Amino acid sequence: MFGWLRDLTEKERKTMIGCLGGWSLDALDVQLFSFVIPTLLALWGISRAEAGMLGTVTLLISAFGGWAAGALSDRYGRVLVLQVTILWYAIFTFLCGWAQDFNQLFVFRALQGLGFGAEWSAGAVLMGEVIRDRYRGRAVGLVQSGWAIGWGAAALLYTAIFAWLPEEMAWRTLFWIGLAPALLVFWVRKHVDEPEVFKQSASRAPSPGGTFGQLFSVLRAPYLATTVKVSLMVTGAQGGSYALSVWLPTYLRTERGLSTLGTGSYLFVHICGAWVGFIVGAILADAIGRKATFLLSAVGSALAVVAFIMLPISNETQLLVAAPLGFIIYMMFSPMGTFMTELYPTAVRGAGQGFCYNVGRAMGALFPFLVGFLSERMALGSAIVVFAIIAYGLQVAALLALPETRGRSVADIPVGAAD
User: What is the count of structural domains for the chain?
Assistant: First the structure.
């Protein structure tokens, strides 16, 4: 499964390690919030709708951060933007631990979102351009598995810290630990270099309209149709996963009656399944194609969410189902970066990936808020199921209008090419 790693060049390997670390720590910082929702509901007396807003604002603002970072990476370099974004999200995660009320936490979470969205944009383009065609799907997919690693680390920290400290201090401590990713910047600065295709590209010359013009480059012909379809596809993928992941700890504690330790155990099993899903999705992306992997995961995810929440199963059986649920849901994220890398030429690749992934994430970010809003009127589990089905249905519809890109060389996609 991992034998291909030995065939990577030193530059490919170091780039992959740097992006894997950045994405893992990005996930750690962002996923911490889902674990503290039950505590904030109790300590601050906020509603589920307000908690959903705190989850949504980070993801919503991430669209602007990711879009801007993609365009900036086209002009100033992928590696420089990657370093800045890691520092940004680490600092504002740390500041979340000092929030004294809902309004302060809302602001810090919003600013955290700028860095959160930006890191993926810079890292995904960097990986897509450095890794050769033969291994691109597997390498970018393996880096995507860092999401499960960071999420798993968040679950372990949550379980340990809440067992050791009172809730009033534990949730703050979790956010303070979020400053740790800043240390990764020093390693990236020393070991990761810009892709050769970027160095040789005419995109380094100022584009019409400067940075502002670069931002909107993929919203004009011939890229507009591709951009709209990919954004909708990502909206479905992100909306479905967020509808579940943001509310899963709360669902387990409030509707299934689990303790903090029990919730942490469920989530750890779920996250282990997600990690395997990322790896398998990376392999399938090269083996059967990007679109087939997306479609398999989307249809399977809709069915798995319904089975996990709606079937009359015991807590013990549900624990067993948690792993395959994570597997099928997160398998679809492995080909994301590769797919978008192969749709856009180098001159607008950062702007294209940054816009599509992060606008899709922003629209998908509405789903946690909608779940919270609807759960005021029906059971939380039922609300999750409703919006998961809507999300995955949207993803499938958009995918049917997009091409397969497996086998494309990133250096051979001409400027002005559309799908």
Answer: 1
